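A quick aside before the break. I want you to see a complete sequence-to-structure record at least once, exactly as it would be stored in a machine-readable document. Don't worry about memorizing anything.
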Amino acid sequence: MFKKNFMSYVKTGILAGVLILLIANVLFLIMGLLFGHDISFVGQNRDTLYIVFISFATSISLLIGAILFYFFQKYTKKPVLWFSIIVLLGFLYNTYTAEASLDAQYKVTAHILHLIVSGLAIYLVPKLSKEKSE
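That is the input. The structure line, written in tokens, reads:
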């Protein structure tokens, strides 16, 4: 059902990471225009969202997530369930830290981005990890 080769999961993580980071950054730009917060490429304020940070965090988390999915499919009978639990725990943690540390104008944007990125991760990583049927 799922691929067996470790490197295929690394490729899945990279592909999912690139797709989702593009979506996340477009949504960040749209929400910046809708909610009126600053849109910056990079900066030093810890209570602000930046495109570079969104891109880095999204791509690394998807790469790590795909690698975790490899181990889940190898060692458990329900890899999608375990992967979903890990992603949901990450979502809760990120939502909490966004609420605790971000400037008020960025909180709604961060929550929406966390929800969409987590949902897409739960959908895309298992989908891209399936073996192609012939």
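Two observations worth writing down. The two ends are 12 Å apart (CA to CA). The mean pLDDT is 92. We'll return to this after the break.
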